[in-house]
Specification:
Elements (H helix, E strand, L loop, with lengths): L2 H19 L11 H10 L4 H4 L15 H20 L1 H10 L1 H12 L7 H22 L4 H26 L1 H4 E3 L5 E3 L6 H25 L5 H22 L2 H17 L2 H4 L2 H30 L9 H8 L20 H6 L14 H34 L1 H17 L11 H19 L31
Helix pairs in contact: 1-8, 1-11, 2-4, 2-7, 2-8, 4-7, 6-17, 7-19, 8-10, 8-11, 10-11, 10-12, 10-18, 12-18, 17-18, 17-19, 18-19
C-alpha cells in the first residue's frame, strides 16, 4: 500500500472511529475544542515544525518561533474569554485547587531571580495555558462527560496518525536517539512524548470501556465498544513499538489501580483505598530493597544506571545556583550553567533536562518548589480518593493518572510546562475536586451521578451537597 492510499485509509479510519463512538445525547460546548487543539499541539509537534522549520533548542533563549507564539497566545486568549464567561465555576475550582494557584504564583515570582527574566516570563505565560485548558474541561456543565469527549478527540486522532507515520512516513515517524539508536516517534518528536500521549489515552479508553460494561446493554453501546476497543488495541501496540519502558510500566500500574478501585469493598471506603495504594508503594519498595532493582530495571529495558540518568543527576545537582529558590522558572538550562553541566558529563552532551521531574523542579524552583509540588500531589490524591466515593470509575482514573505521574517523573521530567504528563496531572488534580464540588448524594435507589447515568451536575454553577450515608 502506498503512502497516499494509506493516508486516505487512515483518515477514513479516524472518521469511522468518531462515527462509531458518536453519542447525540452528550452535549458539550464548542469551547472544548480549545484544550483538544492544545493537546494536539503539545502531544505532537508545534505549528512551526509541522511547517518544516527546525526543531527549536530548549536550551536557547529563543525556543519558540513567532508562529508558535501566536498559536499559543490565541488559544490562551480564547480560553481566558471562556473562563471569564464561566467565572462562577472557574472561581469555585480555583478555590478548591488553591495549592495549584500558589504553585503557579511562585513560578511567576521566581522570574525575579532568573538570569533570563524575559524568557522565563514568556515561558510562564505559556505554562498558564496548561491550567487554562484544564479549567475549560472541568467548567463544562457535565465535566465527566466533557472529559470523556476530550479524551476521545485526542486519542482518535493522535494514535492512528502515529501508526501511519511510523509505517509509511519514516522521515516523520521514525528517528534516532542521542546515542544513534533508531526510535519510533509517530506524530511527536521523541519516543517519550509518544509513550506518554499513548498511555494516558489508553487508560482513558480502559475507563470508558469499564463504564460501558457497567452500564449494561444500551443503545449504541456495541458501536462504542468497538471504537474504544480498537483504540485501546492500537494504543497498546503503539506502546510496545515505542520502546518507552517508563510509559509501558505506567500503563500497567494505572490499569491495576483502576481495576482494584472497581472492587466494591475498595471503593466503599477511603481507608481501603489508602491501604491499597500504600500496599503498592510498599511492595515496590521491598522489591528494590531486597535486590530486585536490577531485575525490574532490566525487565523494563534499561541499564542498572537507568540508562545514564544517574550520571545526569550527579552532574546537575551541584550546579543549582540556589538550593532554596532554584534558578528561576524554566531557567536552569540556559547560559553558562550548561557548560558546567556538560563538563561533568562524558556522554549526553546535548541533554537539556534532568530526566527526573522532582530534580527538574528543584533545579528551577528549589526546595520551595519541590515542597509545593509534593503538596499538590497529596492534594490531588486526596481529591481523587474523595471522588471515588461519588464516581468510582472516574475517581479511579484520576487516581491512576496521579500515581503514574508520580512514578513517571522518577525517570523523566514529567512536571515541565507543555508536557502531556504534567497536563494530565493537572487534569487529575482539578478533576477530582470538580466531582466532589458537583456531586449529588445517591438517591434512595442507590444510583449515583455517573458517566452514563442521570445528569446530576449543575449547569449554572457548582452545587456542593454533603454526602449522608
Amino acid at each position: 500500500m502506498g503512502s497516499l492510499l494509506a493516508s486516505l485509509v487512515c483518515i477514513a479510519g479516524i472518521g469511522g472511529l468518531f462515527f462509531l463512538n458518536r453519542n447525540t445525547s452528550v452535549r458539550t460546548s464548542r469551547a472544548l475544542w480549545l484544550p483538544v487543539i492544545w493537546i494536539w499541539i503539545v502531544g505532537s509537534r508545534t505549528p512551526s515544525i509541522w511547517m518544516g522549520y527546525p526543531t527549536p533548542d530548549l536550551a536557547s533563549q529563543s525556543a519558540n518561533s513567532p508562529m508558535d507564539a501566536t498559536a499559543f497566545a490565541l488559544l490562551i486568549l480564547a480560553g481566558l474569554v471562556v473562563l471569564w464567561q464561566r467565572s462562577k465555576r472557574t472561581k469555585a475550582l480555583l478555590k478548591a485547587n488553591w495549592l495549584v494557584v500558589i504553585y503557579f504564583g511562585f513560578c511567576l515570582l521566581s522570574v525575579l531571580w532568573s538570569d533570563f527574566p524575559v524568557v522565563a516570563f514568556k515561558r510562564w505565560t505559556k505554562a498558564i495555558g496548561d491550567l487554562v485548558m484544564v479549567l475549560i474541561v472541568f467548567t463544562e456543565a457535565l465535566p465527566v462527560r466533557a472529559f470523556g469527549r476530550f479524551l476521545t478527540r485526542i486519542g482518535f486522532v493522535l494514535v492512528p496518525a502515529s501508526l501511519l507515520f511510523i509505517r509509511y512516513f519514516g522521515n516523520l515517524g521514525r528517528g534516532y536517539d542521542p546515542d544513534g539508536r533508531p526510535m519510533y516517534t509517530g506524530v511527536t518528536t521523541n519516543k517519550n512524548v509518544l509513550g506518554v500521549i499513548t498511555f494516558v489515552t489508553a487508560l482513558g479508553s480502559l475507563w470508558y470501556l469499564f463504564s460501558l460494561f457497567d452500564a449494561g446493554r444500551k443503545r449504541n453501546h456495541a458501536r462504542q465498544l468497538l471504537a474504544r476497543g480498537t483504540l485501546l488495541g492500537m494504543s497498546f501496540a503503539l506502546l510496545i513499538m515505542a520502546h518507552s519502558a517508563t510509559s509501558l510500566a505506567c500503563f500497567m500500574l494505572g490499569s491495576a489501580v483502576m481495576l482494584i478501585t472497581r472492587l466494591k469493598w475498595v471503593s466503599s471506603s477511603q481507608r481501603n483505598v489508602h491501604a491499597v495504594v500504600l500496599s503498592i508503594v510498599v511492595f515496590a519498595g521491598v522489591v528494590m530493597l531486597f535486590g530486585g532493582q536490577s531485575v525490574v530495571v532490566h525487565a523494563l529495558g534499561r541499564q542498572t544506571t537507568l540508562t545514564g540518568r544517574t550520571d545526569i543527576w550527579a552532574a546537575v545537582l551541584p550546579v543549582v545556583p540556589n538550593r532554596v529558590l532554584g534558578a528561576g522558572f524554566e531557567s536552569f538550562w540556559m547560559g553558562p550553567r550548561l557548560n558546567a553541566v556538560y563538563s561533568r558529563l562524558s556522554d549526553f552532551m546535548h541533554v537539556n533536562e534532568a530526566h527526573n521531574g522532582y530534580i527538574e523542579v528543584y533545579l528551577n524552583l528549589g526546595i520551595v518548589g519541590v515542597g509545593l509540588l509534593v503538596m499538590i500531589l497529596v492534594s490531588a490524591y486526596r481529591g481523587a480518593v474523595a471522588a471515588i466515593r461519588f464516581e468510582p470509575r472516574f475517581g479511579g482514573l484520576m487516581l491512576a493518572y496521579i500515581v503514574t505521574a508520580a512514578l513517571y517523573s522518577i525517570t523523566e521530567a514529567g512536571f515541565r510546562m507543555l508536557d502531556p504528563m504534567w497536563i494530565f496531572l493537572l487534569l487529575a488534580a482539578v478533576g477530582g475536586h470538580a466531582i466532589t464540588l458537583n456531586a449529588v448524594p445517591p438517591t434512595p435507589s442507590g444510583n449515583q451521578a455517573t458517566l452514563f447515568g442521570n445528569a446530576h451536575f449543575a449547569n449554572a454553577g457548582f452545587i456542593r451537597t454533603k454526602y449522608r450515608s
